Amino acid sequence: TVSLKADSQTKKQVANPLDGALGITTSSFSGHIARRTTKGKITLLELPHILRNELGMTVIDLNTSTLASTDKKYLDQVRTAADKAGCILTNLKMNQRKLDMNSADAAVRNKALTTYKKSIDAASHLGLKWARPLPLAKRPDMKIHVASYRELCDYGAERNVQMLVENYGWMQNDPASVVKLVKAIGDNVAACPDTGNWDSNPLRYAGLKETFPIAVTCDFKA
User: Fold this and answer.
1) Which residues lie closer than 8 Å to 193 by C-beta, 6 or more apart?
2) Who's near 130: CB < 8 A, 6+ residues apart?
3) Where are the beta strands (DSSP E) in the chain?
4) What is the mean pLDDT of residues 30-49?
5) Which of 34, 49, 82, 118 gives 41 a disulfide partner, CB atoms 3.0 to 4.6 angstroms apart?
6) What whole-number distance in Å separates Cα of residue 18 and Cα of residue 3?
7) Integer Cα distance of 20 and 159 in angstroms
8) Strands 2-4 and 21-25
9) Does position 10 have pLDDT exceeding 70, yes or no?
């Protein structure tokens, strides 16, 4: 599940429906979401109704693995299903595999950035606030990593989508990793800590203490 909060400026202007709200990330049950309804599986289009009417929840955090398509007609159907159920779609975890926006090989890096930008387009079409590229296991060349993030942040800013940084992969053994990266990237970026992604409990509690002050959304694991 995810918990979200509004920034202080938004709070002053109008009550934000995401402030303190709990929801669910489709990553948690991606094996139960299919393109068509089958035994034991539902479609993403059915999820908002079930979430609202059976669980009394409204916040849905999406993952590229659970989007059947990025075709605009399909994305419109997803958005309409959420609107009809009174649900809020919040962010898109861009979990495409075998992408490396940190590669020294320009062709490999550009392939990753192009794929992520298409996902940002989808996030923008869905009206999402945030999107997050997938951190890798190996610590990247930080100069390349920050430059690639910066490119995605600029692209997202033009489409009203803010980039997120999550403590995953190479970031899990440093409690300050998210804060340091967000600071290095600069504009149009925020934190999305995951309580389950630190390498140990001491790192977890130190990392959450460092990261929560700049977080806009959080994934909780029990």
Assistant:
1) 166, 167, 178, 207, 208, 211, 212, 215, 218, 219
2) 90, 91, 92, 123, 161, 162, 163, 164, 190, 192, 216, 217
3) 2-4, 21-25, 59-63, 88-94, 130-133, 162-165, 189-191, 217-219
4) 91
5) 34
6) 8
7) 25
8) antiparallel
9) no
What's the CA angle centered on 172, arms 167 and 212, to 5 degrees? 45
- Give helix then strand counts, H and E, for the chain: 7, 8
DSSP state of 55: H
- Indicate the range of 8-17, 93-102, 143-152, 156-165 predicted with least confidence: 8-17
Report pLDDT digits (tens) over 179-219: 999 999 999 999 999 999 999 999 999 999 999 999 999 99
| Amino acid letter, residue 19 | D
CA angle centred on 41, ends 40 and 46, rounded to 5°: 130
